[in-house]
Structure formats: C-alpha cells, structure tokens
Amino acid sequence: MGYIEELRTIVGHRPLILVGAVVVIxxxxxxxxxEERKFPxxxxxLPGGLMELGESTEGTAKREVxxxxxxxxxxxxxINVYSGPKHFVVAENGDEFYVVxxxxxxxxxxxxxxxxxxxxxxxxxxxPDDLPEKMVGSHRTVVEEFLDKHYSSVLPE
Length: 157
Description:
Layout: H1 3-11, E1 16-25, E2 32-37, E3 44-45, E4 48-50, H2 57-69, E5 72-73, E6 77-82, E7 88-90, E8 96-106, E9 109-110, E10 120-126, H3 137-149, H4 151-154
Parallel strand pairs: 1-8
Antiparallel strand pairs: 1-4, 2-3, 2-10, 5-9, 6-8, 7-8
C-alpha cells in the first residue's frame, strides 16, 4: 500500500493537499506526448502522478513517466508550479484533494513507449496545432504555458 492509500485509511475522503508532477515530453519533430487516460475517463493528459514519501518532485516526474510510458527521462526543465482553488479535485471514489503540481518539460528520453493498461488507453505524439479537444483542464493549462513560454527553445532546427 502506498503513502496516499495509507493516509486515506486514516482520513477517509476528507480534503488533503497532495503534491504531483507532470511532464511535457517533446519528440524530435516537435510533437508533444499525450496519454489517453482511463481516469478521468477518456480524456487526454500528460504523463505524471503523485509524490510518494521521500521523493523529490523530479524523482516523482521521472518515476511516473517510467511507470506509465516505459520512457526514461534524462533532463527536466521546470515550466511552472500550479496550486490553489482551481486545483481542487474530487476523485470518482469521493476522495477530495487540492493538488500542487510541478510541471516539467523534456526532450531527452530513451526507451520504448509502452502502455500501462491500469492507467492508460493509449499514447500519441500530437502536433501543437492538432491537440485533442478532450483534455484534462489543468493539463491543457500546462501545455498552453509550455507552448507560449518554452516551445520555441526546443523546436528542431
């Protein structure tokens, strides 16, 4: 049982503050990797997840990407930190939490893209001009900020 599951046995569904990390992964053609998620159902989002005890946010980002995609991230660059009332979540099981999310981007990764069927339906690299309409709202915010502030620095020459 992980840290969050253990905590939930004590506090039930009451609101918690949880820390997570997501990663915008950019391929050599300038496309962004998105995950078709099982939860929230049928929405596209970024690979990432919640921190475990003793982890750094960078460690969380790298672990979650590896677990969900099979890719090893080499270098992480900070996009921003997101928190506040807009980041309140009620999970399908009734668990409530405010998430503090650290968003990173990377162009340096290795491995073979594989789908963790427990969390994902599929993965696809998208051109910034052709992002899916159904995206996790907070992840769309991250992608938009990445495109606005950082994308030009990672474009292929």
